[in-house]
Design a protein that fits this description.
This protein is an alpha+beta fold. The protein has two helices and four strands.
């Protein structure tokens, strides 16, 4: 059975997340990585997956892509807000 680990993408530069994924694949011996992001970070998550696949690890394949909507509470004024989310699962 393969072990899965998540990398949560936020506001840091793309290469920080690529390095995190590389470290997990190579040093931790993980077979599967899940790259997760919400909102504006979705494009960064896609960039991370593509840079990892095309420039660093050509043997890594996209196993699955899950998209969805999360409801989060607004910081000011209360109420709920819908935020898109994505999960890209990469495997060796």
């Amino acid at each position: 059975m393969s072990e899965s680990t998540a990398v949560l993408v936020g506001r840091k530069p793309v290469m920080n997340y690529v390095l995190a994924c590389l470290t997990l694949f190579q040093e931790s011996g993980v077979d599967e990585i899940s790259i997760k992001a919400r909102g504006r970070a979705i494009s960064t998550a896609i960039d991370v997956a593509e840079i990892l696949r095309r420039r660093f690890m050509s043997d890594v394949k996209v196993k699955d892509i899950k998209i969805g909507t999360d409801q989060i509470e607004r910081a000011e004024g209360g109420g709920m807000s819908n935020v898109s989310s994505i999960e890209v699962i990469l495997s060796k």
